């Protein structure tokens, strides 16, 4: 199963649509915040995809959760924007939260800087920001052979 992971679209619906179209095998789209409006619009435009979203610090008035624990293909994914865990100053709080919740994968945004890591059995992915020049997104492949994370520049 392929999971498309995006964050920080900041009203750039065109970039979000391009990322979805560029990953046609992705069954699931995860939006990690700061773009709730365009994520909801994309959800309506791509009804064949399953969408999961969390609130970002710029999603004013949002009723989305700040965190979400999701199980896909037998793996637990912790979704967070990252502002509540102060990810701009380090990952320790976010990693601790993921470990406390038994997550296999930590997905976060907020920094606008793409990151892939693996720490003590935890896969960590920040897809970066889709908005603006040099935008990036990520995807996670969940297979019987294991987990693979990737970061891709938007075309």
UniProtKB/TrEMBL annotation:
Keyword Metal-binding: yes
GO MF annotation: an example: hydrolase activity
Annotated InterPro entries: Calcineurin-like_PHP_lpxH, Metallo-depent_PP-like, Phosphodiesterase_MJ0936/Vps29
SUPFAM superfamilies: Metallo-dependent phosphatases (SSF56300)
Keyword terms: Metal-binding
Gene3D superfamilies given in the database record: 3.60.21.10
Keyword Metal-binding applies: yes
Swiss-Prot/TrEMBL cofactor(s): a divalent metal cation
Pfam entry (one): Metallophos_2
Calcineurin-like phosphoesterase domain segment(s): 1-139
Family, per entry: Belongs to the metallophosphoesterase superfamily. YfcE family.
Protein name, as recorded: Phosphoesterase
């Amino acid at each position: 199963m392929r999971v498309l992971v995006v964050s920080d679209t900041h009203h750039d619906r065109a970039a979000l649509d391009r990322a979805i179209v560029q990953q046609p095998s992705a069954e699931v789209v995860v939006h990690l915040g700061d773009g709730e409006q365009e994520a909801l619009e994309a959800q309506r435009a791509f009804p064949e995809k399953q969408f999961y979203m969390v609130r970002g610090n710029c999603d004013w008035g949002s009723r989305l959760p700040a965190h979400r624990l999701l199980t896909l293909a037998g793996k637990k994914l912790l979704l967070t924007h990252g502002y509540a865990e102060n990810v701009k100053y380090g990952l320790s709080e976010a990693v601790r939260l993921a470990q406390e919740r038994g997550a296999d994968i930590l997905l976060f945004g907020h920094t606008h800087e793409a990151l892939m890591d693996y720490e003590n059995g935890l896969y960590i992915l920040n897809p970066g920001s889709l908005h603006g020049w040099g935008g990036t997104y990520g995807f996670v492949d969940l297979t019987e052979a294991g987990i693979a994370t990737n970061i891709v520049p938007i075309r």
